[in-house]
Design brief:
heterotrimer; A mainly alpha; B mainly alpha; C mainly alpha; A: 3 helices; 76% helix
Chain lengths: 102, 398, 171
């Protein structure tokens, strides 16, 4: 059998990779991709804890489903914003979007 | 006579015995036997696919008042082999500027999305690959892999017609997924389970076509749209965008797309049979044994494959805005109303002998109300168009 | 090494490798397809954790909807789909440091935790997680309220994104 630590370490690594993507990528869409990776890492943790600690309860799965819904909402709004920005500014490189910078 | 009652388990046991007698561990033998089973199953599907090519060509010829292939073998039954040889010896072209990896992956994914569906197909009570308890969700998930393959093919071809075809297909597949899921939910509500085997078992007394004819119609329409066959074949509208997402594919890569499409139609025929027509049942004939049941199931699947072909070669292609309006303004609301009514009626008549008639009558009522509403809507629009003296509005399509 | 452990390691390698490609690859479309590979790997992990429903939802929602949305957004925000400039900004070194630090920090926390080598308890046979889940999501003394709030959030996001993406066109 697989000890719980394997899943947790995998989730931690996935989360860190996602964090790196969010901080280091230029393209705004790529930043959102990084956010997706982080959300997936969180979900792996939630489902793992459900399976290892309380498989009789469904709390962990409910949590994961709510994370799915939030991820879908986040992507829809985020991509709409990016497309809107692209139409107005003709770029989606995050560094060039400095209108609010002083 | 154990074989006739439960062929799969018998074969599995005898293989396991012969494998482990050679000193192999049981785990490894099981995995190996599963692999062999998958291979045999997929080979069966592909051989069936060859036969489907012949059926398709013969039937379309009859619809168009032609003879169809009749030169190679009796009734031209070996024509598909000639087709395959032709596809194999064609030059394999990769267009300039194409994304080679994705370009080559796309046909594989296309066929994979179909073959995945065969895993949950219950041919007979004990002849099923795997009885997933989330079977219907699995059906939708495999469909989304198909969407993915289309967008892969369209983007990687480096061709604007291919990309346009991919855009159209994705718009169509993503939107028609919603009424399809609603129809599947109606079936789930009626059967009380999402597993394919459970759904077939729940139709012991009454097949679901009688309990919910509207769900069957909605599923059929959205299945045809999901398949991208006429009247929803905008993704490969020859007169507008050459051949859509597979414009740039030649030889066997195109062959994979083509085979995938035919097998997909047949698979959806099978799903219609299992969801609404009681799977392997036919007036008690299925009691003769699982193999007879499997044959009946295949026969039903072939019949609905023929129905899908019938629609394809009878109805002309619709326009892209009509396609979307039809889904969002008509099919999706209807599917959701049907789902709510089914849930409500099912709850009120729970455990009562009036459940089946009540469901049937509620379906008829919804259909009648829909037709009345559409009639009045069309009349209003016609009056408006006549009053303003302009050309008739486009939304009367419904 | 049991069979499940080997399977887990294979999926873990797929997930981490493709996740790394997501954050470093040059072509944005490829990044989206690598993300899809990651998502499939995560779905496989859910299946290994006996959460078959979540695995299917993962594929339907993430691969069928979110990834397609990403691909569309990438195509809509590019004139030339062949990206040529560097994918990372000038702070990537700091970002890598922060990434390593967060991984190290999480590892340290995990290391000090006592339940680390816990094994999964056996699932009682005949337990139907899906119906339990369905009942829990729709019963008022369980999770009906969060479920409804989530659906309202989705509706708000739908209307909001249509509004935001449409507004620019009408200007």
């Amino acid at each position: 059998m697989i000890p719980i630590s394997w899943y947790l370490i995998l989730a931690a690594a996935l989360f860190s990779i996602g964090l790196f993507g969010v901080l280091a990528r230029k393209n705004a869409v790529a930043i959102l991709l990084g956010v997706e990776l982080m959300l997936n890492a969180v979900n792996i943790n939630l489902v793992t804890f459900w399976r290892y600690n309380a498989p009789a309860e469904v709390t962990g799965q409910v949590f994961a489903i709510i994370v799915f819904a939030v991820a879908a909402a986040e992507v829809a709004v985020g991509l709409a914003l990016i497309i809107s920005i692209y139409r107005n500014r003709n770029t989606i490189v995050a560094d060039d979007l400095d209108l609010m910078k002083w | 006579m154990e074989f006739w009652k439960d062929p799969i388990t018998t074969i599995f046991d005898s293989l396991l015995k012969s494998f482990t007698s050679g000193g192999m561990t049981e785990d490894l033998a099981t995995v190996l036997i599963y692999l062999i089973g998958i291979l045999a199953f997929i080979s069966f599907a592909m051989v069936l696919d060859i036969f489907l090519v012949w059926v398709e060509r013969k039937v379309v010829a009859r619809f168009q008042d032609r003879l169809g292939p009749n030169r190679i073998g009796p009734f031209g039954i070996f024509q598909p082999f000639a087709d395959i040889v032709k596809l194999l010896i064609k030059e394999d072209i990769t267009p300039f500027g194409a994304d080679v990896v994705l370009f080559n992956l796309a046909p594989i994914f296309s066929l994979m999305s179909v073959l995945l569906l065969w895993a949950i197909m219950p041919f007979a009570p004990k002849m099923v690959g795997v009885d997933l308890n989330v079977g219907m969700l699995y059906l939708v998930a495999a469909g989304s892999i198909g969407t993915l393959s289309v967008i892969m093919a369209g983007w990687s071809s480096n061709n604007k017609y291919a990309l346009m075809g991919a855009f159209r297909t994705v718009a169509q597949m993503v939107s028609y997924e919603i009424p399809m899921v609603a129809a599947l939910l109606v079936v789930t509500v009626l059967a009380g389970t999402m597993g394919a085997v459970g759904i077939v078992e729940a139709q012991e007394a009454v097949p679901f076509i009688i309990l919910s004819p509207l769900a069957f119609l909605i599923f059929l329409i959205s299945a045809i749209a999901e398949l991208g066959r006429s009247p929803f074949d905008l993704n490969e509208a020859e007169s507008e965008i050459v051949a859509g997402f597979h414009t740039e594919y030649t030889g066997m890569k195109f062959g994979l797309f083509y085979a995938g499409e035919l097998l997909h139609s047949f698979t959806f025929g099978g799903f219609i049979a299992l969801l609404f027509f009681g799977g392997h049942r036919l007036f008690g004939l299925e009691n003769l044994g699982p193999l007879v049941g499997a044959l009946i199931f295949m026969g039903k699947a072939l019949f609905f494959y023929w129905v899908i072909m019938w629609v394809k070669y009878t109805v002309p292609r619709i326009r892209v805005d009509h396609m979307l309006a039809f889904n969002w303004k008509f099919l999706t609301p209807l599917a959701f109303i049907l789902l709510m009514v089914t849930a409500l009626v099912g709850r009120i008549f729970l455990h009562s002998p009036w459940l089946a008639p009540a469901l049937f009558i509620s379906n008829i009522l919804i259909a009648w109300l829909t037709i009345e509403y559409l009639k009045s809507h069309a009349r209003k629009e016609r009056d408006q168009a006549e009053a303003s003296g302009s050309a008739p509005a486009t939304a009367t399509q419904h | 090494m049991t069979f499940t452990q080997v399977l887990f390691l294979i999926f873990a390698a797929i997930i981490l490798g493709s996740a790394f490609m997501v954050v470093t690859t040059k072509k944005m479309i490829h990044a989206a397809f690598w993300l899809i590979t990651t998502l499939f790997g995560v779905a496989a992990l859910y299946a290994m954790l006996n959460a078959g429903f979540l695995a299917m939802v993962q594929i339907v929602v993430y691969v069928g909807a979110i990834a397609i949305l990403f691909i569309f957004a990438i195509m809509l925000t590019r004139k030339d789909l062949r990206d040529s400039d560097t994918p990372l900004n000038k702070n990537w070194g700091v970002a890598a440091l922060i990434g390593f630090l967060s991984f190290g920090g999480l590892l340290t926390i995990l290391n000090n935790w006592t339940g680390l080598l816990k094994e999964a308890p056996e699932l009682s046979s005949g337990m139907d997680t899906i119906s339990d889940l369905g009942v829990a999501l729709l019963s008022p003394n369980a999770y009906l309220l969060p479920f409804e709030v989530a659906s309202v959030l989705l509706l708000a996001a739908l209307i909001g994104s249509v509004y935001v993406a449409n507004q620019a066109k009408s200007e």
